Request: fold
Amino acid sequence: MSDRRRVWATLADLLSRLERDLAAQQSPVAVGDLEKEVRKLGKAQFKTTMLLEEQTQQTATALAALEAQQAQQAELVEKLVAERVNAARQEWLASLLPALDGLDNAIASGKRYLEARDQVAARPDLTAAQAMLVSPADRAKLSSWLDGLRMVRDRLLAVLESGGVTPIPTVGQMFDPYQHIAVATTDESNGSNGTPPVAGVIVAEDRRGYRTADRVLRYADVVVYRPKE
Reply:
């Protein structure tokens, strides 16, 4: 036998002896203990996995609740800001109403003055000084002044209308305590045909009222028809 074959034979013999020794050392008790350890490790791994999944689910639920709360708070803040902006805008629009009242009164007074001076101008016994005061040129100046006031008034009404503010209907409407304030009552009919209106109908407006789509900026002061008992 050659040297190489002897070496291989010796190695094979050693391997066989090692395998027999290892097989002899592995008793059934040792194998059972190993199986128990493996089962324990498996249970521990399962519990750890379940705990991690539960914690992950709780974290996801908490994040979803936090996102919903943040969205609700953002919506509430946006709503409050919109309400405050709208309230400030309506307050600013309401501050224009006294100026509009002044223009209405000036236009009404100028109109009455024009009517009175036209009656005076038609009298045949006017002196030269009186005729100069009621001359057509003077009337034209006054008419131009009233036209300018009407233009300013129309612009103010346009600003109010752009902000959703409209006048409250009065004359010919039934009295509505949610829009009107009765400052006086009358039993006289103002109808052109002389037919008395129905009780509770508004026959005159003392001060104009204004409202938006959702609330009244200023109630209208009106005179209500109340027939004699």
